[in-house]
Design goal:
The structure is a homodimer. Chain A is of the alpha+beta class. Chain A has five helices and five strands. The first copy, chain A, binds a DNA duplex through helix 2 and helix 4.
DNA sequence: GTTCCTGCAAAGAGTTTGCATTGTG
DNA sequence: CACAATGCAAACTCTTTGCAGGAAC
């Protein structure tokens, strides 16, 4: 699935969701969705706000938080609580389930998939008679090479 | 290791750590450590504060946050960032590495151990040339039985 | 006596809320 | 034209900070 396919798929999901519940198809919601699907990978409310401003869109924080809640509800966006109290979001349509490896030096986030993990989660569910719905595995690690290769690029840690 | 053994072991670690760095062995630090090791499993700064008050100890929030930072630094306490922006702590001396299964209905936290998970973490580290230091796996699940068995007991979710 | 620690109150970050206004259906 | 969504500012929660007084060594 290309990224523009993911966007149009996401737009369909959104419009269907809005229609079903009598919610409104506002320009703001569409713009936020476009911005997320075109420009952002792991982001917080504030970086979404800045990206919108750079596109010439003045959308209030209240609307951003509302919209993110809406998108999480309809599965267009996932919300993560990483260490340091960071709440980060990522688009979820057209991407497969994955987990996160975070560099302790710079906060760079590497995604990874491990099919073994699904087995661990299922096993735990069986053991405690619970039905796992989702899970987050975050691995915190140091780079092996001297100096972190992502030190300059950084997004989230360095700006703290 | 019994829980009082864990406390005295934790006290030794704390005193050694303080001595090594020329930090002070204050009554507040000792009381906070005692309270955590005697009364708390998964807790936030505010519930620690309430437990201290119930013991007749008036310790300011500033000191609580300072002390928690100190205890995290010397490994006496672990800090977790769960969903909903909850920062929770738990004592770590005398307990083995474990992960968390959280009931979506009530927020009840079940601990579990799965040796497979260590292999997953190591594998990811090798793949990306990083040295994993620690990891958090949180599984969110629904109870299979009708109505959640922990619904009344709750600690963190219900009070939100 | 020096330095670290505590408590208080104020400040700060991130998020939520109330309400008047705007715009979709 | 009804009602949902937006924008703004104020409120709120959790955490951090600055500073004066107090305690450990």
């Amino acid at each position: 699935m290309t990224s523009s396919e993911a966007l149009s798929h996401a737009q369909e999901i959104l419009e269907k969701y809005l229609l079903e519940r009598g919610l409104r198809r506002t320009e703001e919601r569409l713009e936020v969705l476009r911005t997320i699907y075109e420009e952002l990978t792991h982001f917080d409310a504030d970086s979404l706000h800045r990206h919108l401003l750079e596109r010439g869109l003045r959308i209030s924080r209240a609307t951003i938080y509302n919209t993110l809640d809406l998108f999480v509800s309809c599965g267009l966006v996932k919300r993560y609580a990483f260490a340091e109290g960071r709440t980060l979001y990522e688009r979820s349509v057209g991407r497969r389930q994955h987990d996160h490896l975070i560099c302790i030096e710079c906060g760079h986030i590497q995604e990874f998939c491990d099919p073994q993990l699904g087995l661990v989660v299922e096993g735990v569910g069986r053991l405690f008679h619970m039905n796992p719905v989702h899970h987050d595995l975050v691995v915190y690690a140091h780079c092996q090479v001297e100096g972190c290769p992502h030190r300059s690029e950084n997004s989230t840690f360095a700006t703290k």
